[in-house]
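FAQ: What does the model actually see?

It sees only this:
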Amino acid sequence: MAEPQICYEDEALLALNKPPGMPAQPDPTGDLSLLAWAEARTGQAVHPVHRLDRPVSGLMLLARTSAAMTQVQQQFRNGSVRKEYVAVVAGAPPQPEGTLVHFLTQNPRTHRAYAHAEERPGAVRAELRYRLIGQGERYAFLLVQPLTGRHHQIRAQLAAIGCPIRGDVRYGARRANAGRSIHLHAWRLTLEHPITKQNMTLEAPLPQTDTLWIAAAQALQAGKF
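And it is asked to produce this:
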């Protein structure tokens, strides 16, 4: 497995580009986690401030102090952090851009989310915006901005409109990717720095592991997003 890449580092924050298939935090598999890698790299305890699913690649933000952790976690909780993902999906959405609203329920045994069009008991509201940024014969490239932070939100909502993420067999993809990955990448975060209070934008380059990711990166560059 590839090593994480450092995207940004200062006395308060550490932003890493997580390889797909690497757990963000220690899990029952015992595989090296991003958190353990970061602590070995920095020689200090670091604190995750948000989540990233194991099959997903991309930007993972860690705090280097408890004060920074508290401040940044509050931004995630109140929705002031702008999160942008790139997804490679089968087919194409019905419109080139739009907003999806679903109500998600969870199966705790399978760790799968289910997206429903109408409210129901126990469901939580999930909302995201998407934009079509490129398209091939079988796959489309989407820029996705989740407006809520629900478990498996992007994966479940895109599958619900008939656009499962490539490799995501849990949510309807026809076949799995190698290396426990899916074609979903946490590309960009915009937030307030916990010390300077200035707005900052962090980016993690897309993987260059196959022709689809290379094409998605070219679509991003061409669109100047």
